[in-house]
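Thread: quick sanity check before group meeting

JM: Hey all, I'm pulling together slides for Thursday and realized we never actually wrote out the predicted structure for the chain we discussed last week. Dropping the sequence here so it's in one place. If anyone has concerns about the input, flag it before I start.
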Amino acid sequence: MRFFFDSEPDERLLREERIHPGIFAYPVILGIAELVPALPLLFLFSALSKMASQLSPSNSTPGFGALWVLLGMLLFLPTFVVLLVVLLAYANSEILLTNKRLIYRTGFLARAAGELPLDNVDAMFIQEPLLGRLFGFGTVAVSSVGGAQFPFRFIGRPQVFHPMLQRAVADARKPRRADPAMVVQDDSRYMPKG
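JM (edit): ok, ran it. Output follows.
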Protein backbone atom coordinates (compact mmCIF):
# COMPACT_ATOMS: atom_id res chain seq x y z
CA MET A 1 0.00 0.00 0.00
CA ARG A 2 1.86 3.02 -1.22
CA PHE A 3 0.85 6.37 0.18
CA PHE A 4 0.65 9.45 -1.96
CA PHE A 5 3.47 11.97 -1.84
CA ASP A 6 3.91 15.23 -3.69
CA SER A 7 7.03 14.95 -5.77
CA GLU A 8 9.08 18.07 -6.23
CA PRO A 9 10.57 18.98 -9.60
CA ASP A 10 13.30 16.51 -10.66
CA GLU A 11 12.58 14.30 -7.64
CA ARG A 12 12.56 10.56 -8.19
CA LEU A 13 11.79 7.61 -5.96
CA LEU A 14 14.90 5.60 -5.08
CA ARG A 15 13.52 3.01 -2.67
CA GLU A 16 10.26 2.13 -0.99
CA GLU A 17 10.51 0.20 2.26
CA ARG A 18 7.94 -1.68 4.27
CA ILE A 19 8.17 -2.97 7.78
CA HIS A 20 9.59 -6.49 7.82
CA PRO A 21 7.16 -9.32 8.72
CA GLY A 22 9.58 -10.13 11.55
CA ILE A 23 7.56 -7.64 13.58
CA PHE A 24 5.14 -10.52 14.16
CA ALA A 25 7.81 -12.45 16.09
CA TYR A 26 7.05 -10.50 19.25
CA PRO A 27 3.33 -11.41 19.44
CA VAL A 28 4.27 -15.04 18.75
CA ILE A 29 6.82 -14.94 21.59
CA LEU A 30 4.14 -13.38 23.84
CA GLY A 31 1.72 -16.18 22.90
CA ILE A 32 4.31 -18.82 23.75
CA ALA A 33 5.09 -17.03 27.03
CA GLU A 34 1.38 -17.13 27.89
CA LEU A 35 1.06 -20.77 26.89
CA VAL A 36 3.81 -22.04 29.21
CA PRO A 37 2.08 -21.05 32.49
CA ALA A 38 -1.30 -22.02 30.99
CA LEU A 39 -0.30 -25.67 30.47
CA PRO A 40 -0.67 -26.61 34.18
CA LEU A 41 -4.09 -24.91 34.23
CA LEU A 42 -5.15 -26.81 31.11
CA PHE A 43 -4.00 -30.05 32.72
CA LEU A 44 -5.95 -29.23 35.90
CA PHE A 45 -9.16 -28.44 33.98
CA SER A 46 -8.74 -31.61 31.93
CA ALA A 47 -8.40 -33.67 35.11
CA LEU A 48 -11.43 -31.96 36.67
CA SER A 49 -13.43 -32.62 33.50
CA LYS A 50 -12.55 -36.34 33.58
CA MET A 51 -13.45 -36.57 37.27
CA ALA A 52 -16.78 -34.84 36.67
CA SER A 53 -17.58 -37.14 33.75
CA GLN A 54 -16.92 -40.21 35.94
CA LEU A 55 -19.11 -38.90 38.76
CA SER A 56 -22.10 -38.01 36.61
CA PRO A 57 -24.46 -40.83 35.55
CA SER A 58 -24.57 -39.60 31.94
CA ASN A 59 -21.46 -39.15 29.83
CA SER A 60 -22.20 -35.52 29.04
CA THR A 61 -20.54 -32.84 31.12
CA PRO A 62 -22.43 -29.62 30.55
CA GLY A 63 -20.54 -26.41 31.12
CA PHE A 64 -16.98 -27.67 30.72
CA GLY A 65 -16.91 -26.91 26.97
CA ALA A 66 -17.87 -23.30 27.64
CA LEU A 67 -15.33 -23.21 30.47
CA TRP A 68 -12.57 -24.30 28.06
CA VAL A 69 -13.54 -21.56 25.59
CA LEU A 70 -13.68 -18.93 28.35
CA LEU A 71 -10.29 -20.02 29.71
CA GLY A 72 -8.73 -19.90 26.24
CA MET A 73 -10.17 -16.45 25.57
CA LEU A 74 -8.88 -15.07 28.87
CA LEU A 75 -5.42 -16.54 28.39
CA PHE A 76 -4.89 -15.45 24.81
CA LEU A 77 -6.78 -12.13 24.76
CA PRO A 78 -3.60 -10.06 25.40
CA THR A 79 -1.79 -11.88 22.59
CA PHE A 80 -4.70 -11.33 20.23
CA VAL A 81 -4.83 -7.59 21.05
CA VAL A 82 -1.06 -7.20 20.55
CA LEU A 83 -1.25 -9.18 17.29
CA LEU A 84 -4.08 -6.95 16.03
CA VAL A 85 -2.17 -3.74 16.84
CA VAL A 86 0.99 -5.09 15.18
CA LEU A 87 -1.00 -6.13 12.10
CA LEU A 88 -2.52 -2.65 11.75
CA ALA A 89 0.89 -1.01 12.26
CA TYR A 90 2.38 -3.32 9.62
CA ALA A 91 -0.33 -2.48 7.11
CA ASN A 92 -0.13 1.30 7.66
CA SER A 93 3.64 1.86 7.80
CA GLU A 94 5.88 2.87 4.95
CA ILE A 95 9.17 4.61 4.26
CA LEU A 96 10.03 6.30 0.96
CA LEU A 97 13.50 7.42 -0.04
CA THR A 98 13.76 9.90 -2.89
CA ASN A 99 16.78 11.72 -4.21
CA LYS A 100 15.81 14.78 -2.12
CA ARG A 101 14.07 13.58 1.05
CA LEU A 102 13.14 10.72 3.34
CA ILE A 103 9.38 10.40 3.81
CA TYR A 104 8.00 8.17 6.54
CA ARG A 105 4.75 7.07 8.11
CA THR A 106 4.98 4.44 10.83
CA GLY A 107 2.93 3.08 13.69
CA PHE A 108 -0.74 2.72 14.45
CA LEU A 109 -1.50 3.69 18.04
CA ALA A 110 1.56 5.92 18.34
CA ARG A 111 1.82 7.51 14.89
CA ALA A 112 5.01 9.08 13.52
CA ALA A 113 4.89 10.72 10.11
CA GLY A 114 6.90 13.35 8.33
CA GLU A 115 9.69 14.03 5.94
CA LEU A 116 13.34 14.81 6.34
CA PRO A 117 15.28 16.64 3.62
CA LEU A 118 18.42 14.69 2.82
CA ASP A 119 20.45 17.92 3.12
CA ASN A 120 19.62 17.90 6.85
CA VAL A 121 20.79 14.35 7.58
CA ASP A 122 23.77 14.45 9.94
CA ALA A 123 24.45 10.80 10.77
CA MET A 124 22.95 7.36 10.27
CA PHE A 125 23.70 3.93 11.65
CA ILE A 126 22.28 0.39 11.83
CA GLN A 127 21.11 -1.52 14.91
CA GLU A 128 20.33 -5.21 14.58
CA PRO A 129 18.98 -7.13 17.58
CA LEU A 130 19.45 -10.90 17.80
CA LEU A 131 16.01 -11.65 16.33
CA GLY A 132 16.69 -9.07 13.63
CA ARG A 133 19.91 -10.78 12.61
CA LEU A 134 18.13 -14.14 12.51
CA PHE A 135 15.12 -12.96 10.51
CA GLY A 136 16.71 -10.17 8.44
CA PHE A 137 15.41 -6.92 9.95
CA GLY A 138 16.86 -4.07 11.95
CA THR A 139 16.72 -0.39 12.77
CA VAL A 140 18.24 2.35 10.66
CA ALA A 141 18.66 5.36 12.95
CA VAL A 142 18.98 8.75 11.29
CA SER A 143 19.86 11.97 13.10
CA SER A 144 19.27 15.39 11.63
CA VAL A 145 21.42 18.51 11.81
CA GLY A 146 19.25 19.87 14.63
CA GLY A 147 19.85 16.73 16.71
CA ALA A 148 16.47 15.06 16.18
CA GLN A 149 16.59 11.27 16.06
CA PHE A 150 14.53 9.20 13.61
CA PRO A 151 14.76 5.46 14.30
CA PHE A 152 13.21 3.48 11.44
CA ARG A 153 12.51 0.14 13.15
CA PHE A 154 11.87 -3.26 11.58
CA ILE A 155 13.30 -2.39 8.17
CA GLY A 156 13.95 -5.49 6.09
CA ARG A 157 17.58 -5.90 5.04
CA PRO A 158 18.88 -2.71 6.71
CA GLN A 159 22.36 -3.34 5.29
CA VAL A 160 20.85 -2.67 1.82
CA PHE A 161 18.80 0.39 2.83
CA HIS A 162 21.66 2.04 4.78
CA PRO A 163 24.16 2.35 1.86
CA MET A 164 21.39 3.55 -0.45
CA LEU A 165 20.50 6.23 2.09
CA GLN A 166 24.18 7.18 2.40
CA ARG A 167 24.50 7.55 -1.38
CA ALA A 168 21.31 9.61 -1.58
CA VAL A 169 22.54 11.95 1.19
CA ALA A 170 25.93 12.33 -0.51
CA ASP A 171 24.26 13.09 -3.85
CA ALA A 172 21.90 15.61 -2.21
CA ARG A 173 24.87 17.45 -0.69
CA LYS A 174 26.81 17.72 -3.94
CA PRO A 175 26.82 21.22 -5.36
CA ARG A 176 24.53 21.46 -8.32
CA ARG A 177 25.73 22.76 -11.64
CA ALA A 178 23.91 25.85 -12.75
CA ASP A 179 21.55 25.56 -15.68
CA PRO A 180 23.02 27.56 -18.61
CA ALA A 181 19.64 29.13 -19.31
CA MET A 182 19.45 30.37 -15.74
CA VAL A 183 22.96 31.86 -15.49
CA VAL A 184 22.84 35.57 -14.77
CA GLN A 185 24.64 37.56 -17.45
CA ASP A 186 27.19 40.19 -16.56
CA ASP A 187 25.21 43.43 -16.32
CA SER A 188 28.22 45.69 -15.73
CA ARG A 189 27.79 47.33 -19.13
CA TYR A 190 24.53 48.82 -17.93
CA MET A 191 25.94 50.11 -14.69
CA PRO A 192 27.65 53.51 -14.64
CA LYS A 193 31.32 53.36 -13.81
CA GLY A 194 32.24 55.61 -11.18
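AS: nice. The radius of gyration is 29 Å. The beta strands are 13-17, 94-98, 101-106, 112-117, 121-127, 137-144, 149-156.
JM: adding both to the slides.
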